[in-house]
Amino acid sequence: MKLETLSCVVKGKLDLDIITQQIEYDENNQDQTLVQITRGGICGSDLHYYQHGKVGNFEVKHPMILGHEVIGKVVKTNDPKLYVGQKVAINPGKPCLKCKYCLSGDINQCETMRFFGSAMYNPHVDGGFTQYKVVDNAQCIDYPQNASDDVMAFAEPLAVTIHAAKQAGDLSGKKVFISGVGPIGCLVVAAVKALGASEIVCADMSERCLDLALEMGATKTFHAASGDFTPYLAHKGYFDVSFEAAGHPSSIERCLAITRARGILIQVGMGGAVPEFNVMPLIAKEISWKGSFRFIEEFNTSVEWLSTGKVNPLPLLSKVVNFKDFKAALDLAGNKNEIAKVQLSFE
């Protein structure tokens, strides 16, 4: 079965296009499903590919379909657990299932992970900002038909934050600090609240982001530059767990300062090199500093939480834009002063 699909591609820095492609689905294939994409959230990495033509060292070498926060409807499948018209969230990661990390269950550390919308390999791995896409059956996570597209398109970013939250262990009754409450930081707020945190304090440079953090469940917020954090410095720190989601050296230093001795710091923000970093608080207070990368089974957890209303991400949804206005949507998403999350509609 062959069909045409319109795809949103990046060709390089500030160079976007919508192109017509031919895709083929083998109706006898027992392992793959043809999905009609209905909605896709624009992520920071999509913006980086657009604004800079690369993410880190991964540079766009040829047209690549963007997008990894996508949901859709089943068009064709041989999977007995799915049916035509079934709504699904699409897990954007395709691990090899053969390397030592996959075999031990740490599939987010797969040595040859193929993740939607990534220029890590050449040819690149196309993403989900397209009308139709062939995916592995295992990437399709079904959810109730009455669940809102607005809500379910948050499945991937929420999964990232549930994974981050679980790096800290049991959060029941814990005092939590979150530095940086953009969309990911705000979803960390929702995740730690759902996992039982008793106190959730947030800091950011943006009053708009701080207001959103309160809507998502924060108990208190501080402006990162002018807030008084002095009460949290006494007795070698106050918070049991801190989440650094800004990726800035000053943010990391604050987290270390106000996390209690033998507390935990989860690194979520991707800020690159940290110049002239003072490691003494980390050493002297015996803080456990842990990275958090993507997700494993948390994608399924995220789909469940969203479809049952355990987490409501809608305060973060700023705008839904038709995919044919792809460039305008990315420009809008880049306006961090006014915009939290922008989604593309493919219907």
UniProtKB/TrEMBL annotation:
Ribonucleoprotein listed as a keyword: no
Q: Which GO terms describe its molecular function?
A: metal ion binding; oxidoreductase activity
- Print the keywords alphabetically: Metal-binding, Oxidoreductase, Zinc
**Signal sequence: where?**
none
A Pfam cross-reference name: ADH_zinc_N
What family classification does the UniProt entry report for this protein?
Belongs to the zinc-containing alcohol dehydrogenase family.
Classification via PANTHER family: SORBITOL DEHYDROGENASE
Give the protein's recorded name. Answer: L-idonate 5-dehydrogenase
